[in-house]
Amino acid sequence: MLDIRPPPDWIRLTAGIALAATLGAALAQSESQSQSAEDAKLSEDSDSKQWWRDVDFTLPGAFADWHIFQKDGLRVDRGDGDLRLKFNANLWVDGGRIGTNDALETAFPDLPGTYAMISRARITMRGWAFAKGDFKIQVEFAQTPQVKDSWFRLRDVPYLGNVRLGNMREPYSLQSAGGGGNLTFLDRPLPTLALAPGRNIGLAANDTAFDDRMTWAAGWFWNTGSFGEFFGAKDAVDQSIGSDLVARVTGLARYANEGRELTHLGLSLRRQRFHDQVQTRATPETWLTDENLVDTGQYSADSGTHVNAEFAIVSGPWSFQAEYFQSSFNASGKGTVRFDGIYGFASYAFTGESRHYDRATGVFDGLRPKRKFEWGSEGWGAWEVALRLSHVDLSDGAIRGGRQTDVTAGLNWYINDDSRLMLNYVHGRVNDRSVPPAVDGGRVNIFQARFAIDF
């Protein structure tokens, strides 16, 4: 069997930078500089960043045409506008306790306990080259250092919209396509963790239509699935197991009051070809452990077909969101096996804010407090409560990876645009798992807190 391995991270990173420089030079003669919808969204000023927004100076001497200033991150712009850079950092500190019943403790003796960790420590560089090129390089230092996003994009390509090449998230599922820093809960729901793809190397295009009421995205990806046991393994570049062809379409059936009232619909399709082992699994909606309570183990499959349906409503401070996932695999010697999952959650911001929706990509990008928290003032940030039910079924035919149902309650305090405090309680039930270690009648209770700084 052919075993194709992707090049090391440093080679991909060097090639990406070289590609960015080459394509940027080809665009140097463009007459005008345009800013994409994503750039405009990321460039919004915020009074909540007052503690460092006064950064604004130019370099001396030979670098006098370089301007360094704060605008939704630390920005470095060259005077001629041909190159603009933006740097951001993320730091998440998690702590909590996991408790189990005897059935689950017998299967996972290391699972119960008290935990504290730095779950995210990332540095991100965004760049805009000349008129129509931009790129992103993101490196994770927590747990196991690894390259996350590393891509170059051409904007406003005729008939294709925006074309992106590199390591990136596949356009599949509302919860998977959005960034982790914009989630209402501490982790994605069970079916997203198990049945949605992570980052892979590929080529993708996306655009909007009908006055930004519709988005579409499609791409081909080299599936570099990881069987590693470290955190974030789904995104890690490891042995190639096949290829993915994926497409996602979203639409706004209703959009009013600048997005405070909306109805979102979406559909994703994904077709896979495999030349190596496949594995489907999920952690119990927490970053405190990398134990997978439902897990099919590795098995051989020729192909896989995945379908995802999305639905979301925002009505002022109220929000409801749900998704359904179904995955079918043509498993060697086992026939066709089908796994599925569903989740739904409701949230309410009792300080009056609405979840912000990005019409350029068809995803939510978090809650923004109207008034930052500040001692001695009337501002208390934004407060949000949320409740989620999620279920995933990884047992079918000869494969008995288990079924898990979680109920998660959350309380979020968005102190300002840069920082937030999140509390989650998760109650999970695990049944019908015969893949070692076997579990039936398992119960888990998770209390978790996170302090996050994103700037």
Question: How would you characterize the overall build of this protein?
Answer:
With 455 residues, the protein is mostly beta strands. The chain has a single domain, classed as Porin. The protein contains five helices and 24 strands. It has helices at residues 9-26, 37-42, 102-107, 174-177, 190-195, and strands spanning 56-58, 66-70, 74-78, 83-100, 113-129, 133-140, 146-157, 161-169, 199-209, 214-223, 242-256, 261-274, 277-278, 281-282, 294-295, 299-315, 318-331, 335-349, 355-358, 363-367, 382-396, 399-414, 419-433, 442-454. The strands form three sheets. A 16-stranded antiparallel barrel has the order 4-5-6-7-8-9-10-11-12-16-17-18-21-22-23-24. A two-stranded antiparallel ribbon has the order 14-15. A hairpin with a 4-residue loop joins strand 22 and strand 23 (419-433). The longest helix is centred in the N-terminal third of the chain and has 18 residues, at 9-26. The N and C termini lie far apart (46 Å). 40% of the residues are buried.
Strand proportion: over 45%
- CATH top level is Mainly Beta
The CATH architecture = Beta Barrel
> What is the overall silhouette?
globular
**Measured distance between first and last alpha carbons:** 46 Å
Helix content: under 10%
Helix count equals: 5
Low-confidence stretches: 1-52, 226-233
Task: Quickly count the domains.
Answer: 1
Rg result:
22 Å
Report the biggest beta sheet as strand number plus sense, adding barrel if it closes.
16 strands, antiparallel, barrel
**Strand order across the biggest sheet?**
4-5-6-7-8-9-10-11-12-16-17-18-21-22-23-24
> In the CATH hierarchy, what is the superfamily?
Porin
How many DSSP-defined strands? 24
Helix and strand content put the structural class at mainly beta
For the residues shown, what is the average pLDDT?
85
Order of helices and strands: HHEEEEHEEEEHHEEEEEEEEEEEEEEEE
Quote the CATH topology: Porin
